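As practice, study what follows.
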Amino acid sequence: MNAAWNILDPAAPAPVQDRQLAINRRQFFGRSATGIGAFALAGLLDRDKLLAAPPAGNNGLPGLPHFPPKAKRIIYLFQNGAPTHIDLFDYKPALHKLHGTPVPEEYLVGKRFSTMTGNPSGKLMLQPIEPFKQHGKSGAWVSALMPHTARIADELCFIKSMHTEAVNHAPAISFLLSGAEIPGRPTMGAWLNYGLGSSSQDLPGFVAMTSVSKGTSCGQIFYDFYWGSGFLPTRFQGAKFRGSKDPVLYLSNPKGMKPELRRGLLDDLAELNQLKYQEAGDPEIQTRIAQYEMAYRMQTSVPELTDFSDEPEHVLALYGPQVREPGTFAYNCLMARRLAERGVPFVQCMHAGWDQHNSLTTELYTQCKDTDQASAGLVQDLKMRGMLDDTLVIWGGEFGRTPFIQGNIKNRPRWGRDHHPYTFTVWMAGGGVKPGISYGASDELGFNAVDQPVHVHDFQATVMQLLGINHEQLTYRFQGRYFRLTDVHGHVVKDILA
């Protein structure tokens, strides 16, 4: 039942098949009244490693990384709802000239949009709502909506030619994080937790945190499959940290229970679970044992993690005024840095509220205010600590937003943009990417990725490359075939690698 069975022995049966074989043996010998039957059963179980103790910790798979990694950890600042690329980072002067005129028909041929747009013919072009300027030695174009990000432009690698296939939020987020629009595949964090393991003994190897801007009308939902393990053993899924005084549910001991009593209960429970594992060979029993042990260690590590009293004022100031408020994006960004320096290799901070169908001139300002300083502050903080070189920070959403308006162009307070999968922008920092560059480009209207387009699977392959993984070689056999994060696609974008 070695977790690396599919790589070390591709001919070995899948865990589900192995359990079925164990059940058949048990049923067979259970019908036998002879002592030799029980003896033979024990031999079979030992041969198939079903009597082995559950693995301690998560050390990853043998042979990984495939080559020296440039990044040791990832902090993914995922912006749910799709930030508008043409209002933030992808400056298009032509939109000013075409403002209020119909979309050129040649841009619409063969395009699919959300049902909220319907037929895009006749929709009016909409200029950026705030001015752009070039920043730093790199001359990166950044909107006035993002002043803090603009100041660190020379640390960033902008990918301006991202494109995807989904036109609605949940499928697009699932596609970007797991390589499939339909839920059920392992997410990026789960793949890396499975393949590379974690050096942290007292915290999970994959942590997810969520936040939403106050007062937003954008009703984005955080589904558990955004940090799920899919068909991988569940011990590799993301641990959800809540934005509250107790970030992990049921972690604290009940009143009156002493630590010694809890330790004894866990030891007895582990023995019971081990007996059940010896009987059934279900790898999820190992997960249960490991999770109980991790929870016990987290009773000490999490309170220390969430105590910001040791953070200097100048560091707190980097993240902005909301950093002391649990549940905010700024708080989660500082938590991400603290998790990273304690050995957690994958932290996923998801912030919702970017779905501005009719609130570009109102809620977009709030979103930028809530995320701009904290995102830039995280990059600066990592650099001050010497962690940026081997920490990959990613900022971006699931797709972009249309260059044309959704709503009445005469009613500025209700301006909006619909979903747009054909081009969007993400930025990356540290972790082996070239700083101060813009890679790829969209056309003059920000409508299509035309220069060095980067598909979602290319992006995933590149992230894995930075971590020392050949994306074609990290696989898992499930339901008769071998799966990987990039499915059967993906090319590493070598031009952005430092």
Q: What stands out?
A: Residues 1-13, 27-56 have pLDDT under 50 and may be disordered. The longest helix spans residues 283-305.
